[in-house]
Structure formats: C-alpha cells, structure tokens
Amino acid sequence: MNIDKALIKSHEKMNLSELVNAPVSALQGVSEGDAELLAKAFNVKTIKDLANLKYVRWAQAIVTLADTEA
Hints:
Order of helices and strands: HHHH
C-alpha cells in the first residue's frame, strides 16, 4: 500500500509500525500549529493517538452506519 501522498516527505520511507508513533504533523495537511492545537485540546501527539481519539471513531462509525441506512 502506497501512502506517500498522505505523509510529508520526511516520513515517506518509514514503515507502518514506525508511523503509528510519528507526530500527527507527519500527515499531509497537518501543520505544526495544528499538531499543537490537537495536543492541547485532545492530548493527541501521534498518528496512533489521532486514530484512537474517540471523536474520530464516533465520526467514522456514524458515516459507516449512514452509508448502510435505508
């Protein structure tokens, strides 16, 4: 799986097990300032923290369920 377009250049060669512990600013479109705000508001520092954030999981569940709603 090529996820290079999801990452900033300096993190493109990292493997997935390394990326989970990378800072959220390693993601394309997440600036250092955004990362600071996520840390301050939600204690999110790594990609894993962001993925495990309950609000992200709730949003994903709502979207998935909405897609199956008749």
